[in-house]
Amino acid sequence: MFSVHRTAILALVCWLPLHGCGGGGKSAGAAAAGAGGAKVLNLYIWSDYLAPSTLQDFEKQTGIKVHSAYFDTNETLETKLLAGSSGFDIVVPTASYFERQIRAGAYLALDKSRLPNSMNMDPQLMAKVAMNDPDNAHGVIYLWGTNGIGYNEKMVKALMPDAPLDSWRLVFDPAVAAKVAKCGISLLDSPAEMLRAVYSYLGKDPNSQSAQDLVQAEAVLNKIRPYIRNFSSSEYIEALANGDLCISVGYNGDVLQARDRAREANKGTEIKYAVPKEGSILWFDMLAIPKDAPDPDSAYAFMNYMMTPQVIADVSNFKRYADANAASQPLLLPALKNDPAIYPPPDQMQKLVLQKADSPEQTRAVTRVWQKFKTGQ
After folding, report:
1. Whole-angstrom Cα distance, residue 232 to residue 212?
2. Which of 15, 62, 279, 366 is most buried per CB count within 10 Å?
3. What is the span of the domain harbouring residue 320?
4. β-bridge partners, 230
C-alpha cells in the first residue's frame, strides 16, 4: 500500500505555475496544455514508483508531456482528491481507499473501449480487486503486494537469539519489543494499515469495524510505544539498508529495495522480509482518472500504455513489486518471479486478507487512536 507505496522524495503537491515541487507538476490552470499547446498529463503517484525510463518513453511515444507530483501516504492523496479541482489526470490510490473515493464520486467510470491493453490483465487478480471496485469500473491494477516485517537478522539476534522473526510478536509483544528496541523499530505511518496488523496479531478480522476490537488494539499499541523509534512510510528503506534500523513494518517491495541496496553497499548488512504467520493484508495500487481530470484523453493514453507488457514488466523488475499483467509475466526477471516475498506461494496467499474500506466512523476512530499513540498522550 502503500508506496507506496514508495520511497520518499516528497513533493506533497506544490502545484506552482511553472514548476512542481520535486516532480515538475503544473497548476490546474495549466494542466491541459504546455508550451505551444502541447498536451500535458498531470500524474500524482507514490514517490519513486516507476522505472527510470517509464515517463520518458511515454513522452516519446505519444508526444504527451508528463508532470509528476508525489505522495507517501494515502491520506495525503485522499485529502487532495476529495477537496476537488486537484488538477490531476491520473492518480494511484491503494484499493481500500479507492473504494470509498469511488463512493464519494471522485472518479470517472472507465470507457474500456479506450483501453485495449486491458485484455492483458490477470482476470483472477482483477476479480479480487473488484471487491473494492465493483466490475472493475473505475480502475486497473498498477502493482500489488503485501505488508510484513523487514528485519536485519544479525542485529536482531544479537539482542535476542530466539526472536520470533516470523511473527507479529516481533513488533507487538512488549516483552519482545523491549529486547530488540535498541537496534531500532519503525512502523508505517499509516493508521488503517497498522491497526490491521495489530488485529492480525490478536487473531481478529483485519477489516474489523468493532469498537471493542479497536480498544484492544489500542492497548497493544500503548504497551509498545516506548520501544518505537520511527514512524515512516518511506524513509525506513534507506534506514534498513544502512543499518540504522533493525526492524520495520513495511511494504514488501520497499523492504526488498532495502535488501538490494544493502547488498550493493557490500558492508555485510543482510535484510530479510517476512509475512507474519498470523497473516497480513494484500493490497493493490490502482491507476484511476479523477472525475474532474483536466485531460482525460491523455489519462486514457497513459493508463493503456502502462498495461503494455514490457512497460509494466520494466517497472516490476526495477521496483521489486508484483504486477497484475498476465502478459508481462514471461518478461519478468527469474529472481523476481521466483521470490516468495514478491509472488507469495499459495499457502501464504490463503493467509492474506484484502484490505477493505473502513466506515467513516471507523476511520475517525482509528485516526484518533493513532495520533494519541504517535504522540504518546
Report:
1. 27
2. 15
3. 28-145+283-343
4. 186
